[in-house]
Amino acid sequence: MKKHNFSAGPCILPQEVFLKASEAVMDFNGSGLSLLEISHRSKDFVEVMETARSLAIELLGLEGKGYKALFLQGGASMEFLMVAYNLLESKAGYLNTGTWSDKSIKEAKLFGEVLEVGSSKDENFKYIPKGYTIPEGLDYLHLTSNNTIFGTQIKKFPNTDAPLVCDMSSDIFSRQLDFSQFDLIYAGAQKNMGPAGTTLVVVKEEILGKVSRQIPSMLDYKVHISKDSMFNTPAVFPVYVSMLTLQWLKDLGGIAAIEEINEKKARLLYSEVDLSPVFDGYANKEDRSTMNATFNISDDKLKDTFDAMLKEAGINGLNGHRSVGGYRASMYNAMSLESVGVLVDVMSEMERKG
Ligand SMILES: *Cc1c(COP(=O)(O)O)cnc(C)c1O
Q1: Which mutation among 77, 99, 184 tests ligand 1's pocket best, with the greatest number of atoms within 8 A of CB?
Q2: What letter does residue 30 receive in the DSSP assignment?
Q3: Is residue 7 one of the residues assigned to a domain?
Q4: 280 shares a domain with 208
């Protein structure tokens, strides 16, 4: 039986994507060859890369606005340093909203001065800081749109003259935003777009080329742009699967359509968390993520029973991150409303037992 997979990442993808991906591993486009054994310079693969890049730009509504999409390697973690390598000349601002922001700050400090414009560390990242001041003259301001681990999400992005850089690893393509307010967006594929192994970078070309340091080719966004994201052998399989997922999303009606479903899923789950005396939500209500819902069980003695019930219902990946504990339900784009319904049924059953 196929499980209801609430894992935070690598995560669920649409069933039809799994199917098409497995077909391509055996026989790619009826070529008699596996996707895994053809040249990345072949016409068929170049088309995959170009389709994936243009779908990303199209779905984000960034056509004709000076942006380029790249599929790089090294995970979102590589972007922590690439962003600073390419953009940080003297000082940058960072909003610290969790483990991932913390890690991006650590890397940026190797390249210049980092100003933490705000932080929610004081309350173990339960909330999104607001009303912070953004100093003048920053090379860029870095934000993490969704905090995968703590279950918080930025709902309103700050106004600033500085280029805006955003780590959207765990909520890209999940909700409508004016994406042109960002100058650089990056996202590891394995949360909401594809398998592990590639990272989407969408960058406004005009912000590049302004730092005085020399940048190694592999870490230089301009090099990757000039080679159409094929400077070296790209991660062919993750790029292909990402392309399939983006195609699936477009056929569904794009971000507007998926946002509606994502909001329904989140409403369903959070209303159970709020109503039930057995569960307590972790993140502040106004900042809660539609992608990763974090909650605790009020009485630890009920945990074993609840865990057994989850298992019985075929629910996988609900354990919270080790730095928060409790439970975390990740409801990425490919998660169906029905699966969330199964989880909510188990939670209300627990309530009757508790
Ligand atoms: C998972 C995650 C990362 C790290 O991604 P890697 O691809 O493993 O380097 C960074 N930022 C956020 C918000 C994440 O959820």
Answers
A1: 77
A2: G
A3: no
A4: no
Task: For residues 8 and 317, give the distance between their C-alpha atoms in angstroms, rounded to a whole number.
Answer: 7
Q: State whether 66 and 141 are in the same domain.
A: yes
State the distance from the centre of ligand 1 to the C-alpha of 82, rounded, in angstroms. Answer: 14
The helix/strand/coil state of 63 is coil
pLDDT tens digits, the chain, 354 residues: what are they?
Answer: 789 999 999 999 999 999 999 999 999 999 999 999 999 999 999 999 999 999 999 999 999 999 999 999 999 999 999 999 999 999 999 999 999 999 999 999 999 999 999 999 999 999 999 999 999 999 999 999 999 999 999 999 999 999 999 999 999 999 999 999 999 999 999 999 999 999 999 999 999 999 999 999 999 999 999 999 999 999 999 999 999 999 999 999 999 999 999 999 999 999 999 999 999 999 999 999 999 999 999 999 999 999 999 999 999 999 999 888 899 999 999 999 999 999 999 999 999 987
Would you tell me how many other CB atoms lie within 10 Å of the CB of residue 197?
A: 21
Same-domain pairing of 229 and 300: no
pTM reported for the whole predicted model: 0.98
Asked if residue 316 has its Cβ within 6 Å of ligand 1, the reply is: no
77 lines ligand 1 (CB under 6 A): yes
| Domain carrying residue 329 | 254-353
Domain identity same for 190 and 156: yes
The strand pairing partners of 152, in sequence order, are 147, 288
User: Does some domain include residue 180?
Assistant: yes
Q: Determine which residue's CA is closest to atom 10 belonging to ligand 1.
A: 76
Q: Cα torsion for 331, 335, 338, 344, to the nearest 10°?
A: -20
Of 232, 252, 272, the domain-final residue: 252
CA distance 332 to 6: 8
Total domains, the chain: 2
